[in-house]
Amino acid sequence: MSKSISAAAVRERLLAGTEMALLDVREQGVHYQGHPFFACSLPLSRLELMAADLVPRRAVPLVLLDGGSEGLSERAAAKLAALGYSDIAILDGGCAGWRAAGFELFSGVNVPSKAFGEFIERHYDTPRVPPHEIRQMIESGRKLVILDSRPYDEFHRMNIPGGIDVPGAELVYRVHDLAPDPQTLVVVNCAGRTRSIIGCQSLRNAGIANPVVALKDGTMGWELAGYECERGSTREAPAPSAAGAARARAAADQVARRFEVRFASRAQVLDWQADSQRTLYLLDVRSRAEYAAGHIAGARHAPGGQLVQATDEFVGVRGARIVLIDPARVRSVMTASWLNQLGLDDVYVLEPEGADGFDHWQRASGLCSAAMAVIDAWDTLTPAQLQARLQAGDTLLLDLATSLKYRAGHIEGAVWAVRARLAEAQAKCAPAASVVLTADNVALAHLAAPEAALLWPQAAVRVLAGGTAAWTAAGLPVATGMTQVTTTPDDVWYKPYDHEHEGEYEKHARAYLDWEVALVEQIRGDPTVRFRTYA
């Protein structure tokens, strides 16, 4: 049985800065409704798939929380113990206990990073221009370039007309070739506020000669102003020229001095990897393509802009060591400068070695993860075999994908369920001779299979080989919408544009932007929030 810990004791650990992971094991959409500032989302449904990346050291102290009465923390503790985690405590009363102790709960996701963006805008008075003024500049022929600081998939979905995708930490690295004329206005945008603010201020901190502004409220603000976004754009910033890279390196060196960025040698990092008493994150902050082409074995991909935008998705342990990797030493320095300001204490940039920066390191390629899911392969069915069983009418097909993915497309006849709530599905579904599980991640279905077998002891439980993707690839019937559900669709956070089909995008976009702005006042009541400022 796991030990318990009071809210006051957790607060003291946060103030002390010792290593600890505060993990909210409710589904992400429930986490969104309210949680302690530094709580990371680790949903029980996907715990085995996320735990090793979020918390790589098995001996680190873990504090688990839920709403206070669901028993989710106890279930999560058992799974984490099975994965080898040895120091597990459960927060007394969960979120309800935290609030009862007089401590603040914060709604939303990626709260530390979002609050930090608002803090930075106020501290630096980061220049921001409303959409109508940018539109007027474009129409008047003013010389400007619009740089979108989001990852490519978000940019491709929607972007400001004429914008170029330059995600986060890539801005300082690539801007010199995109705006060589110092008279060119550089406009940085994202979907809302945080990455616009951080991106704009990154260029200003780096001392580029151009005037730089953030597009106020990003693509949301653009659409709320009545303007249309482009859809399906493919414009990406090219790799920098030799001259552009040299200018970027000089700018990064200036930032490193100003924000007291620390550097680590290969020998130091090897010593830290051997230190069983401290948690170490090796994070490669380059582009996805560069990481896939070759990286240090064991390093996780954490593109710099997203690492600052969603630190709690990459670093689950407060007080851990973080080493950032980029042979060009620009994106790593820019990212480190922001993590220092976020209040993280042990952030380092790896000094590159050799022609490609990785001399003497063991290397790997591809898009790998440190996930250590313990999965016993379960009996499977092919899509054709499943189709025959569905036609026979004696099979219950449960889809464990996120509600968003189920809504976008699922196997015709599939019933949507959440892995952590399979008991709800069992109570709501008619008895069946066969139960088949599918998901967007096949590993998730295999993890859920033994749990389903306990709930449906009289049924033959199988997993769809290849998951829903295999069914779709075979050209078999699919449906859209929330056609058959067994629980509340609060498993994930719905972004404002996820509400477009309901005709409520504008309402949710305005609420989201208001929430971001309000965070800077809310953090005043939480002494564990200690952002840093530098001269």
Walkthrough of the structure:
With about 525 residues, this protein is of the alpha/beta class. It is built from 23 helices and 24 strands. The strands form six sheets. Strands 1-5-4-2-3 form a five-stranded parallel β-sheet. Strands 6-10-9-7-8 form a five-stranded parallel β-sheet. Helix 8 (about 150-155) links the parallel strand 7 (about 145-150) and strand 8 (about 165). Helix 9 (about 170-180) packs across helix 12 (about 240-260) and helix 12 runs parallel beside helix 17 (about 330-340). The longest helix has 18 residues, at about 505-520. It is globular and about 70 Å long. The mean pLDDT is about 95.
Question: What is the element layout, followed by pairings?
Answer:
Blueprint: E1 3-5, H1 7-16, E2 21-24, H2 28-31, E3 40-41, H3 47-54, E4 62-65, H4 72-82, E5 88-91, H5 94-100, H6 111-124, E6 128-129, H7 131-140, E7 144-148, H8 152-157, E8 164-165, H9 170-178, E9 185-189, H10 194-205, E10 212-215, H11 218-224, H12 242-258, E11 262-264, H13 266-273, E12 280-284, H14 288-293, E13 295-296, E14 300-301, H15 304-309, H16 311-314, E15 321-325, H17 331-342, E16 346-350, E17 363-364, E18 380-381, H18 383-392, E19 395-399, H19 403-408, E20 410-411, E21 415-416, H20 422-428, E22 434-438, H21 442-455, E23 460-464, H22 467-473, E24 478-479, H23 505-522
Parallel strand pairs: 1-5, 2-3, 2-4, 4-5, 6-10, 7-8, 7-9, 9-10, 11-16, 12-14, 12-15, 15-16, 18-23, 19-21, 19-22, 22-23
Antiparallel strand pairs: 13-17, 20-24
Helix pairs in contact: 6-10, 6-23, 9-12, 12-17
